[in-house]
Amino acid sequence: MRYLLYSMMVIFIVGCANDKQNLGVPSWYLNSPQNSSTSLYGEGEGYDKKESINNALSSMSSKLIVSVKSIIDTTTTANSDQYYLKETTKNVVVEAKKIEFTNAKVYKIQQVNGSIYTIMEVNRIELFDTKYNKFQTKHKSIQDRYNDIKRNSKMQQIKELTALKPKLISAQSKAILLNAINKSFDYEKYTSLYQSYINKIDKLKAKLVIKVASNHNREFFKDSMISALNTENYRVSSQNYDINIVLTNKIRYSKAMGWDIAKVATTISSRTSTKVLSTKIINTIGRSSSNKDNALNDASRAFEEKIKNIGINNLLFEK
Known about the structure:
The chain is of the alpha/beta class and 319 residues long. Among the domains are: 125-206, no CATH class; 208-317, Lipoprotein like domain (Double Stranded RNA Binding Domain). The chain has helices at 2-24, 27-30, 49-78, 86-97, 124-149, 154-181, 188-207, 220-231, 292-310, 312-317; strands at 39-46, 104-112, 115-123, 209-214, 235-236, 243-256, 259-271, 276-288. A 5-stranded mixed beta sheet has the order 5-4-6-7-8. A 3-stranded antiparallel beta sheet has the order 1-3-2. Strand 4 (209-214), helix 8 (220-231) and strand 5 (235-236) form a beta-alpha-beta unit. Helix 3 (49-78) packs antiparallel against helix 4 and helix 8 (220-231) runs parallel beside helix 9 (292-310). The chain is elongated and about 80 Å long. The N and C termini lie far apart (88 Å). 25% of the residues are buried.
């Protein structure tokens, strides 16, 4: 019986405290309007007007992020090829977080007990029109650039499309964000187009044949270069090749504290039948407790890491 009375008293006290808390917050804030086809809303609380408004705008962008994630999940589930890249998924959330609501207006604001409560409103149609016009400018720039790129050689197309890729991913993200603002916007028309441009990089790589040669009878470094090329989806063959990569290794062996050490300076020359595309020198060190060959093999592993960090495209095309 005492336990029952005690429990009822606790419930009563907690209930009263909650009622007092609720009385301190405006009812219109607790029951803020839901997003509609014409308006977006965000709620914020702060110690001053600026903080309260900024928090309300952050709330608004958070709601857009939820919508954006829903779009991505629905689309990638519906499409068997799942052409959306991981970079796009991450980038679109970033775009939503930093979106500028230039047409935002104070819907309601009130100061209560030292806190300012605000609901911000954005006209969805005006916001879409502003973002859409900027998007179309970017889209035209991408189209013009792509039309210029496709006139070039396979090698030049790979280089320039790879450089364009970050802009394509950004444009994909902006298209998805536009759909989050206006559901009637056909974002897939653009995201699939941009993805086809990104996919063309690997298609061109599959057509471009690369030969790898080395001046050393031990093919550790040659094998490392081929491995790096394969990772980037380049085709390697000694027949009918477009590019010849020649590795010239200068090796210095030494011994220290029982370890065999191989210091290697590798000159990487990339060339076509008519011109040198690039020349790079990479220095590596390998160690082994058993023999020189293993030390050289260890240096080749360091070589592979370095060429991956530099980037195959930079090794192939950048002088």
